[in-house]
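Checklist before submission:
- one chain only
- standard amino acids only
- sequence pasted in full

Submission:
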Amino acid sequence: MEKINGQIFKNMIITGANILQENKNIINELNVFPVPDGDTGVNMALTVLSVAKEVKNLELSATVSEVAKVASNGALRGARGNSGVILSQIFRGFANGLADKNEATVNDMALAFSEAEVAAYKAVMKPKEGTILTIVREFAKKANEIAPEYEDIEKFLQEAYNHAEEVLARTPQMLKELEQAGVVDAGGKGFLCIIQGFISGMIKEEPELLLDSDAAHSTQNTQKVKEAEILYEYCTEFIVERKLKMNNKMKDLDTFLNKMGDSIVLVEDEGIIKVHIHTNNPGKVLEEALKTGRLLTVKIENMKEQHEDIITKKENKIQNEIKKEIGYVSVANGTGITNIMQDLGTDYVVNGGQSMNPSTDDLIKAVQSVNANNVIILPNNKNIILSAKQVENVIKDKQIYIIDTINIPQGISVLLAYNPSETVEKNIENAKRAFKDLKSAEITYAIKDTVVGEHKIKKNDILGIVQGEIKKVGKDIHKTVTETIDMMIDDSSELISIYYGQDVNEAAANNIKEYTQKKYPNCDIEVQFGGQQVYYYIISVE
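Returned file contents:
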């Protein structure tokens, strides 16, 4: 095949999503860190599933350029975790490379992969060799090198794929962590699954899209307050093909939407306008939308009939509240942790964490629901920070700030430091100072045999992770917890906070408190129910 049109490109993307979905567990098992998160495969699969869902809705007449643009937007909003954000930038670069193309040739595809490489590298502040970036770069390099030799796109992609696969096999030689764990890079493997889908998907008949049970990790899991009540009955989403000359139509539409409901997301991406709103009058909303262009897709759901889409009582009152200066969106997992963050003033708690990273779209919707001029996002996980930073590229009617909290204790310390009488800049300064000297740890278990640094780890070993590094490996939870705390205590320590997870009973947590209190009588010790998954205990020392 010497040229691909929009429909073929759609099929390639859908097949890529399917192959990624089929291989997500294999990719998860390639994770170097032996904790039960397994997020790389899931994050990549859900990100590309979001892309595939978007392009699947396009008309048969859509050009390659149009498909690439919609794919880019779908990836941006569906990105989960660092691997998902990098993928979103790959699709963004692809869209740049295929701009204004009705069809794509080998040379066009080579250029698109070069643009994808550039965009992917921009997403990562400190690129490392042996990661997905290396595989993308080598694929793009080979693609441009061989492009003059090929007219058939399938054969062209296959040769570039073969080269990148050879490079993937060498990634353990590039990263010590991969060599120790005896695995290749998970992100690179995921990228090649997509390329494999591109090659297999060069068919005229549109394939079925494999849906993912993990797609439940969405805004359906987003929590705001404990009680729920629906103010706006219909969840309405649509895509409009924008008119060429709109003048102030976008501004008029934005003003109109704000009068008609809440949970509004309004995204303009060149020729496409995407809208999400909760309203009681979807007909009037669609009528207004028609003034801006032609409706491409429409989805209306009755939220009163869908328990998982219920908007909470606090969110429903938002229209009657006075807009405050500073609001907070925090990512957390566990009913106890969620309640603590709500009690400390978080406006919106997005359900997520180590084992289920929220998408950029989840965070966008959370920020949109906060009735404040300035919204501070607390990712509370290093793998969510990049997704949070993408929110700034979408929301323009509020000032967005991201504090790079990498764990729950840091997020809690930020909320404790909040002073409503101070400016947002001063609060951010105070927040960063608040967790500067905070020590944190997590206690979990190993999901496989591996070697990390000096530690030879066996499956089901108990792991004490301090400041993101495995410091203790044991067989007994109580002993591993207390020995981990010992590593964190120094002469300046005053407070030890222990949050126990859903798999720990209160008596066991109190036993640790009693033991630790006797050993460190000068420290205050707090034990609270966190209810978090993955981690038996989350601990902070300050």
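Reviewer check: The chain has four domains: 3-211, 229-306, 321-434, 439-541.
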